[in-house]
Design goal:
Layout: H1 2-14, E1 25-26, E2 29-33, E3 39-42, H2 44-60, H3 77-80, H4 85-94, H5 98-101
Antiparallel strand pairs: 1-2, 2-3
Amino acid sequence: MQIVDSVKTLLNGRFEMKDLGELHYILGIEVTRQANGDLAMSQANYHIDVKFHAIRQWAKEQILKITYISTNEMLADFLTKPVAKEPLRKLTALANIAGFMNGEG
């Protein structure tokens, strides 16, 4: 911490500064302190934020139309999570892959 304090003192002599405390986010990157004192950086939330904001902007500009679809009608559900037998039959029929799922395709 002595190096950090020295750098802060040096910069404060040349620039007006305010200490905002421990860093948590910078330029969309999450920064966390590990138990051993090391810093870990992650952009996991950054990608979600960028995609979310882009989709929101496209919807606002009417480039993209967003429609609510009930979980019972989401065709991709059986590809991403366990689905009970009857909903699986319905979803594969809607997706027109029932024959493929039965080994016929």
